[in-house]
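Throughout our pipeline, every protein is held as a single compact record rather than as scattered files. The record that follows is passed on verbatim for readers who wish to inspect the format:
___
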Amino acid sequence: MSPLPRVITDDVLSDNLIELLAGKIERLPWATLDGESDTAVDGVLTFGHMLVTAEHMAKFPNLKVVSNYGVGVDHIDVAAAHELNIPVGNTPHVLNGTTADQAMTLLLAAGRRLREGDIYARSPEFTYFDPAYMLGTEVHHQTVGIIGLGGIGYQIARRCAAFDMKILYHKRTELKDNPSNLELTYVSLDELLEQSDYVVTICPLTEETTGLISTKEFAKMKNSAVLVNVARGPVVDTAALTTALQEGQIYAAGLDVTDPEPLPRDHPLLALNNVTIAPHLGSATIQTRRKMAEISVDNLLLGLRGESLLHSV
């Protein structure tokens, strides 16, 4: 019987992954990536917080595949993998709807001050109903601007349409495929920032999009605007966001991701009441995480056998 392929994984795996990988690979600890190059490694199963560099891949001559548990691959040197003929797999599409749900959750929570309301409702200060207290801003019939209208962005647009929102979007090229026939308006980034009541970022993290929303961009937004980031933390300049919220340049923010992640416990952003923060939960449902595990393992096993991956970049 031939030995099992040796795969570097995170040291802590979900129950789904443990079940799916059982008896199919020999797990190697993540520290193996930075170890000696004479270690036999056939594959890598990685996550968004774990870097896979050109140096890592080059020192393992038997490396056949890098499989990512998630869509974004900004933590993997994909160009280097291509040069080394190492396929890189990811898990697109399966989490589009779930992440769009999270975007709407944050949009609604930030606009309607849900975090503040929850804290107040639990406190001894809440002794009577005051109709003039803790007023939020409406969502329905407002204008939303979506930065990055890929698979997830389009699902966000569908949900916004159900709220009768006017939908603006900005991406590198105008959308050609609109299967749901949504009323979408393609605008420049500046136009989107100036006109939107809600700005949602869901673009990939690249050199061009790092710091895409910073001091200059916040100055163009309405004082009543809400920012929602379900992309990557570095798409938004954290220091500029903190200042914008502190000084009332924008109304509120809802963040699924931050930069850095997690934020230091004494970071001033954490002390603000007009920001709602989730610990990177965009795809965090029981059903979607199971599907992501299945696809990432399928990609891994296909690559180890030298076969085409289900999804590759």
The mean pLDDT is 96. The first strand starts at residue 6 and ends at 8. The two ends are 33 Å apart (CA to CA).
